[in-house]
From TrEMBL:
<dbReference type="InterPro" id="IPR033949">
    <property type="entry name" value="CobQ_GATase1"/>
</dbReference>
<dbReference type="InterPro" id="IPR029062">
    <property type="entry name" value="Class_I_gatase-like"/>
</dbReference>
<comment type="pathway">
    <text>Cofactor biosynthesis; adenosylcobalamin biosynthesis.</text>
</comment>
<dbReference type="Pfam" id="PF01656">
    <property type="entry name" value="CbiA"/>
</dbReference>
<feature type="domain" description="CobB/CobQ-like glutamine amidotransferase">
    <location>
        <begin position="255"/>
        <end position="441"/>
    </location>
</feature>
<comment type="similarity">
    <text>Belongs to the CobB/CobQ family. CobQ subfamily.</text>
</comment>
<dbReference type="Pfam" id="PF07685">
    <property type="entry name" value="GATase_3"/>
</dbReference>
<dbReference type="InterPro" id="IPR047045">
    <property type="entry name" value="CobQ_N"/>
</dbReference>
<dbReference type="GO" id="GO:0009236">
    <property type="term" value="P:cobalamin biosynthetic process"/>
</dbReference>
<dbReference type="InterPro" id="IPR004459">
    <property type="entry name" value="CobQ_synth"/>
</dbReference>
<feature type="active site" description="Nucleophile">
    <location>
        <position position="334"/>
    </location>
</feature>
<dbReference type="GO" id="GO:0015420">
    <property type="term" value="F:ABC-type vitamin B12 transporter activity"/>
</dbReference>
<dbReference type="InterPro" id="IPR011698">
    <property type="entry name" value="GATase_3"/>
</dbReference>
<dbReference type="InterPro" id="IPR002586">
    <property type="entry name" value="CobQ/CobB/MinD/ParA_Nub-bd_dom"/>
</dbReference>
<dbReference type="GO" id="GO:0003824">
    <property type="term" value="F:catalytic activity"/>
</dbReference>
<comment type="function">
    <text>Catalyzes amidations at positions B, D, E, and G on adenosylcobyrinic A,C-diamide. NH(2) groups are provided by glutamine, and one molecule of ATP is hydrogenolyzed for each amidation.</text>
</comment>
<protein>
    <recommendedName>
        <fullName>Cobyric acid synthase</fullName>
    </recommendedName>
</protein>
Length: 497
């Protein structure tokens, strides 16, 4: 049976996912068979396993850092919010149901806990070490009786807990002590150490607070981890705000705008663009923010129909149409691709109210929603002239099937011979179901050069690999990072290794 360690946080976005990734890489380098685990994840960024299962993207990244293929047992329950207190519930990688929050909470222990137990058992038999990630905070009193993501999982796995606090937000000592105070005595006994994360400044200035914390709680601070730009895909929607602040390093840049849909999903699609030194990537949520971009991207969404209605109500649909008339490039990914068509047919109310909903009419396509969700890794070859012949890979996650009309050409051909996507006759509007498209460096290089030519800028001299291109080096860097700033020998003692 595997030994386990669980990282829980004082709140969301404190850095649990990145630290778990670093732990996975560390134990992999130490020669252990290690796997990540997160019982229940609420995230709009997901990954696809080799057998077509859908899990939280963080667990996919952590598995990669551990040198293994991700499986659905690493994240048995995935919740993908669709808005209005409704989430898609995914169990062991497959669509289970769309459920309101009250209905899910009412059945969570009966329906979800057995799935968690099964996955935990399977992983415990197959691996030596499990790195378990909590969700939110273990001290949410109003949710505690139905919480299957924190202390109940620690008990199931008999895992000691390290509590992570984010000092960047301020009040880290209060949040650590306050979390402990709200735990039951048996839960508090599982907490064997603290990590203070995202620290900036001189460590010695923090020492008096650390000494007080250890005296007050009797629990050691295992590490003070400096703030680090990791290049790891963010999972939490809170991370979108930091992406809005990124500016290009080059003075000759193209301005690419991503529409910040209320139900945006898989926004990690655009991190390679945020990394590029000659791209200004902006997330906008109003027509007045739109400005004069060189390209507009409509991203994926958990509810195409409702986000399309929001797009119209906000005035963004009209503004995007004006930009299209000026031959500004308009791009759609997944749900954004569906929006660009003439119509969205939803007779069974899979997405929203049953009926036929008009699209933006920028591409000669029509989408039909069906309950059968397509989740698959995919690869193929680009057919558009400016990137023709470039090989790309990624994954599909969608419930719609889209048909092209005679005024649109396919964007790419899958390796099995099927065609995907659509591009307008003048080439200024195109879309695809392929998530992860911009992770393909040659394609992204070709597209940015196309935008540069249209803007009158000279072409790039070379492809920009970005921080995320050499992922193995990124994971090795994370391992060095925690070796330096976390007492990993003491962590191994806590685990019982």
């Amino acid at each position: 049976m595997a030994k386990a360690i669980m990282l829980q946080g004082t709140g969301s976005d404190v850095g649990k996912s990145v630290l778990c990734t670093a732990f996975c890489r560390y134990f992999f380098e130490e020669g252990y068979r290690v796997a990540p685990f997160k019982s229940q994840n609420m995230a709009l960024n997901s990954a696809i396993t080799a057998d077509g299962g859908e899990i939280g993207r963080a667990q996919g990244v952590q598995a990669e850092a551990a040198g293994i293929e991700p499986t659905v047992h690493m994240n048995p329950i995935l919740l993908k919010p669709k808005g209005d207190m409704v989430s898609e519930v995914i169990v062991h990688g497959r669509h289970y149901a769309d459920m309101e929050a009250d209905a899910y909470r009412g059945s969570v222990l009966e329906k979800a806990l057995p799935a968690v137990r099964r996955s935990l058992s399977i992983l415990s038999e197959a691996y030596e070490v499990l790195v378990i990630e909590g969700a939110g905070s273990p001290a949410e009193i109003n949710l505690k009786d139905r919480d299957i993501a924190n202390m109940r999982v620690a008990e199931l796995a008999d895992a000691p807990v390290i509590l992570v606090g984010d000092i960047e937000r301020g009040g880290v000592f209060a949040s650590l002590v306050g979390t402990l105070e709200l735990l039951d005595p048996d839960e508090r006994a599982r907490v064997k150490g603290f990590i203070i994360n995202k620290f900036r400044g001189k460590r010695e200035l923090l020492d008096p607070g650390i000494e007080w914390l250890e005296r007050r709680t009797g629990i050691p601070v295992l590490g003070v981890v400096p703030y680090l730009e990791t290049g790891i895909d963010p999972e939490d929607s809170l991370s979108l705000e930091s992406l809005r602040l990124k500016m290009p390093a080059s003075r000759e840049f193209v301005d690419i705008t991503v529409i910040g849909l209320p139900r945006i999903s898989n926004f990690t699609d655009f991190l390679p663009l945020a990394d590029a030194p000659d791209v200004r990537l902006r997330y906008v949520r109003s027509a007045k923010e739109l400005g004069e971009p060189d390209a507009v991207i409509l991203p994926g969404t958990k509810n195409t129909v409702e986000d399309l209605a929001w797009l119209r109500a906000s005035g963004l649909a009209e503004s995007i149409q004006l930009l299209r008339n000026q031959e500004v490039e308009i791009v759609g990914i997944c749900g954004g691709y569906q929006m660009l068509g003439h119509s969205l047919h939803d007779p069974d109310g899979v997405e929203s109210h049953p009926g036929i909903h008009p699209g933006l009419g920028m591409l000669d396509i029509r989408t039909h929603f069906i309950s059968d969700k397509r989740t698959v890794r995919a690869s193929g070859e680009i057919l558009i002239e400016w990137a023709g012949g470039v090989s790309v890979s990624g994954y599909e996650i969608h419930m719609g099937r889209t048909e092209r009309g005679t005024d649109a050409s396919p964007v790419l051909q899958w390796s099995d011979g099927r065609m995907d996507g659509a591009v307008s006759a003048d080439g200024s509007v195109w879309g695809t179901y392929l998530h992860g498209l911009f992770d393909n460096v040659p394609f992204t290089h070709a597209w940015i050069n196309r935008l540069r030519r249209k803007k009158g800028l000279p072409p790039r001299s070379k492809e920009h690999l970005g921080r995320r291109a050499d992922r193995d080096a990124m994971y090795a860097r994370l391992s060095r990072w925690i070796r330096e700033y976390v007492d990993m020998e003491r962590v191994k003692q806590i685990i019982g290794l």
